[in-house]
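Sample pair:
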Amino acid sequence: MLVWITGLPGSGKTLLAKQLSEVIKTTTNFPVVQLDGDFLRNILPFKMSHDIRSRSEISHFYSKLASHIESSDLVVVASFFSMFDKVRHNARENSSYYFQIFLNPPNNLLEEYNKKNLYSSSSPDSVRSQWHDLEFPKDSDIVIDYLVDKSNVQDIANSILDEIRLKGLGI
């Protein structure tokens, strides 16, 4: 199974992926692999920009990697920016079970939080400057319209696992 968590930077993808991975590990007998876009980007032997072309290229790589690991009968919890329809479509098509979560908090909260300085107009790779190129998910299994943080992540992770089980997706 591939659980694909996507959303804009600062929306809580990594935090949610960590918590959901832990909930799956402790409540099921399934081995879990957590893949995080920021972590993977940092261990690559080369640097990638945050421009739209680089984001698309790295997202395609992440999709292939997640699907490949998932094909080994592991649960993969992946947290990626991946605002590209083709990337998410390929991940869905190449996974035995696919469950997509879209974190979509209000833009003003993301800009206020601005953890990675990717909403600043002075940043050359500002998310705001790439807005017109982004393809927001339209077919997510769950959409979360608020910021995921330490105060709510446990409840959200438990609810997601309940929803996955309700859909009979193999966990």
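The chain is about 45% helix and 15% strand.
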